[in-house]
From TrEMBL:
Function: Is responsible for the charging of tRNA(Phe) with phenylalanine in mitochondrial translation.
Enzyme Commission numbers on file: 6.1.1.20
Organism, scientific name: Scheffersomyces spartinae
Protein name (database record): Phenylalanine--tRNA ligase, mitochondrial
Catalytic function, reaction form: tRNA(Phe) + L-phenylalanine + ATP = L-phenylalanyl-tRNA(Phe) + AMP + diphosphate + H(+)
Length: 464
């Protein structure tokens, strides 16, 4: 999401990392947000917040903040988190798991050097309680305080994060990230020896690595080293970072392979060696920066963003001039979908015992679908008034607010501009499907009516 330099449109299914990439980038419409009637105050965690013109977080999203799926050792997200924590046990990391999702724009954006006009700050992308508080959009929001607090060379943070986004099988407005970071000090006379020792301590893997940016090619003018570091420091920090992530990916995907085989799968890809590649990226608070992609079931999965932390973040955290190191952020939900064979991201939030009872601490098992109920397809078509500020994410939000987890996916299937009236017409297709029961025509009609009503009231559309 936070790559600003090279926004590329990729198939949604090949993004494991929680990024944007859907219709949002193609429609190029000015960004406004959907502001329904919000109460004058919102309660969260016993605190009261006065709403204002920034408020856009609906009640169903606030409810999700209470779930804390990553803290449940018998839930796929919690099991995956534990697998990673066990992998890095005794390697110098502190684990943080209970940061609350409410943060300030300072924590989520400013301290990390996001420019004022970065799209991530907009109300169409981010849930705001009011202008001073928002639901974190990434675990990097806690880098600042962890750098200040942490007594070990590195740390891991796992937490729920929130983004307004499209609606489909792999996107949900709430998901989970795991952040890692590690530092060394230029004031340590033996920094080079220490770094070499730390690198050697990362277990070797059999992964096939494609990396055009290794060793003396670590940085270049497009993806630069920071001036305060020596070439060697930048090279070694990058090598430690990449080996750490390769080891993490290896542990996770080897487990996915084992569990798929145990579940009886004989698919060809399970016998191929694991292959990853590094690509250059851009994040406002790291330089140089990369992403790792994993070759899995015949496609490259974008998996994790990372880089060498910029000095300003460390100085802002009162660490002085001489620390240097790396950070990464990895999305857990889509990896857990692969690992546990879970076909739809909504299932993680299911309260159905038939889902929850299938998983136990420490075990990666393959999900057994309990049934597939038939879905219902419905369209919503309307004319927008000229100069309308309606954003695709606003429509997604309205549909999700009215239909909740009965919404399987929503697609903008048609859009055209009337040459004479200059009015735009849009048609969205909604697939309704429940995980645990049959739907009735009446309940779907009611949702459709609610969606249309909301669109009329808030955006003055004309239903077709
Ligand atoms: N927070 C970034 C994201 O969600 C990922 C990231 C973490 C990148 C740490 C660099 C360093 O897009």
């Amino acid at each position: 999401m936070y790559r600003v330099a090279r926004p590329v449109l990729k198939p949604l299914t090949s993004n494991l990392f929680g990024g944007f990439g859907g219709p949002l980038l193609t429609l190029n419409r000015s960004k406004r947000f959907y502001s329904s009637k919000f109460p004058s105050e919102i309660e969260l965690d016993g605190q009261t917040f006065k709403t204002d013109e920034w408020t856009n977080v609906p009640p169903y999203i606030l409810e999700l903040t209470k779930r804390q799926l990553h803290q449940d050792v018998n839930h796929p997200i919690g099991i995956l988190k534990e697998l990673v924590e066990t992998t890095f046990k005794d390697m110098g990391y502190t684990y943080y798991n209970d940061f609350k999702p409410l943060v300030t724009p300072f924590q989520n954006f400013d301290v990390l050097g996001f420019p004022q006009d970065h799209p991530g700050r907009s109300k169409s992308d981010t849930y705001y309680l009011n202008k001073d508080y928002l639901l974190r959009t990434h675990t990097s929001a806690h880098e600042h305080e962890c750098f200040q607090e942490c007594k070990t060379p590195g740390y891991f943070i796992t937490a729920d994060v929130y983004r307004r986004d499209e609606v489909d099988r792999t996107h949900y407005p709430a998901f989970h990230q795991l952040e890692g970071a590690r530092l060394w000090s230029q004031e340590d006379e033996d920094w080079e020896l220490q770094m070499l020792k730390d690198i050697a301590a990362i277990p070797q893997t059999d992964i096939i690595v494609e990396d055009p940016f290794r060793e003396n090619k670590t940085f270049n003018s497009e993806n630069p080293k920071q001036d305060y570091m020596t070439d060697r420091q930048c090279e070694l920090a990058s090598l430690h970072l990449k080996k750490t992530i390769e080891y993490l990916v290896n542990q996770v995907f080897e487990n996915a392979r084992i569990s798929a085989k145990l579940a009886g799968s004989t698919e060809e890809y399970l016998n191929e060696p694991l292959k990853v590649r590094w690509v250059e990226a851009y994040f406002p608070w790291t330089s140089p920066s990369w992403e790792i992609e994993v070759w899995w079931k015949g496609e490259w999965l974008e998996c994790c963003g990372c880089g060498v932390v910029q000095n300003q973040v460390l100085r802002n955290s009162n660490l002085g001039e001489h620390k240097f190191g790396w950070a990464f952020g990895i999305g857990l939900d889509r990896i857990a979908m692969l690992l546990f064979g879970i076909p739809d991201i909504r299932l993680f939030w299911s309260l159905d015992e038939r889902f929850k009872n299938q998983f136990v601490q420490g075990r990666i098992s393959t999900f057994a679908p309990y049934s597939k109920y038939p879905g219902i397809k419905r369209d919503v078509s309307f004319w927008l008034p000229p100069d309308s500020q309606l954003h695709v994410n606003d429509v997604m939000e309205i549909i999700r607010s009215k239909g909740g987890d009965l919404i399987e996916n929503v697609t903008l299937i048609d859009e055209f501009l009337h040459p004479k009236t200059k009015k735009t017409s849009q048609c969205y297709r909604i697939n309704y499907q429940s995980m645990d029961r049959n739907l009735t025509r009446e309940e779907i009609n009611k949702i459709q009516e609610g969606v249309e009503q909301e669109l009329i009231e808030n955006f003055n559309v004309k239903i077709r």
